[in-house]
């Protein structure tokens, strides 16, 4: 492997590509994978029941047959509302548990990796747009998450807080009638903002051929190094450096242990 | 078909508030809130011919009008408020989230948010009593028989005779007429006085609700549809282009 690769993003030779393809890097922890799919399931349940709950002609945005299907499944709309609330409460509790017990590894990780936008991230977003429009520009190297993902992370973080708080206000009436009135509009707005990004997220992650690795990493936790090198160069560089240090230390330790063991055995 | 209605004879009402008390006792209506109410118009001078005046006073007995085209039902986001087949407008407490959009929408101020239940409450013509074959509590208790309850679709009923025979009128104005099913009969001057003193107010939509309806819904709708279409177009392009065999 060329040393310069660690200094600067360079095009790879064929052999280097093949070599990188075989190696794996850990991208997601098991806890992250579970939370992601739990969140996806909750969103699916809440979006379907929630959209079927709004029935007034002023506010309704789904067709009547859709509402009838979901009413049929739950029997009464009151049951559906109860289910919607219970699922939401479970969701909030799980997220809080993650935030409290995983504040060091997962909450801070989310903030550090996904919410702090560097200059490169913003340039990435602009150039990505230019690429879609057909201009020929180069994308700046990215960390573990790219600018687009970070923007969506902001959308989701703000959306989650707004959805949870407005949901609690509607259920418990904290703040009185005025708060409830605003909570309905805010609940709707926040969900809308999140869903707008959701389609892009699903397309980018699950359907785009270039992001194949990224999609499967949400199941396995691993991506190959070629993907990491090409899409998340800054992160790849950090990980390789860290790994080399780790291997060095680990090797020394193991060799020491081995020496000790063999000497003991001889004696 | 049944179409429940109530007729109030303003000539007979003496303003004793017995109906209000019976309603409170029956349904545990909290202080300062009303399912039904009695308000005096106070003596009012009406012009008569020849520069003379006539003092008229009446009591306005109000409650939910169980309108034909209820504005409250349209305003309720969750469908907790609906009109039953027998014409009674009810609130399903299991679905009500107590946002009070309907409270603003009601032209008669007949709804309130229950302070402890946090749900909207109002007159439901004592629907649970009707099921047992009883009359509404206020009708049963009225000492002068000023309140008459019955089925407007039944030509033999008292309400039918009073509404179609004696010209009982609902409280409506040129601006607001949503077909109230509580009618007032008796002295025409008194009925006019009540309608003038307590006219229906225009149905209101609270700011967050109109913001949601007029701004957020179209904007978010466009955004969500746009984002979905964008992703779909990208996928169709991908279908057209195909994928690399080796990478």
Structural description of this entry:
By secondary structure, chain A is an all-alpha fold. The mean pLDDT of chain A is 91. Chain A has a two-stranded antiparallel sheet. Chain A is built from eleven helices and two strands. Chain A has one domain: Up-down Bundle (Fumarate Reductase Cytochrome B subunit). With 247 residues, chain B is of the alpha+beta class. Chain B has two domains: 194 residues, Alpha-Beta Plaits (2-Layer Sandwich), CATH 3.30.70.20; 42 residues. Chain B is built from eight helices and eleven strands. In chain B, the strands form five sheets. Chain B has a three-stranded mixed beta sheet with strand order 10-1-11, with helices on one face. In chain B, a hairpin with a 6-residue loop joins β8 and β9. Chain B is elongated. The N and C termini of chain B lie far apart (73 Å). The interface between A and B is large, with 38 and 43 residues.
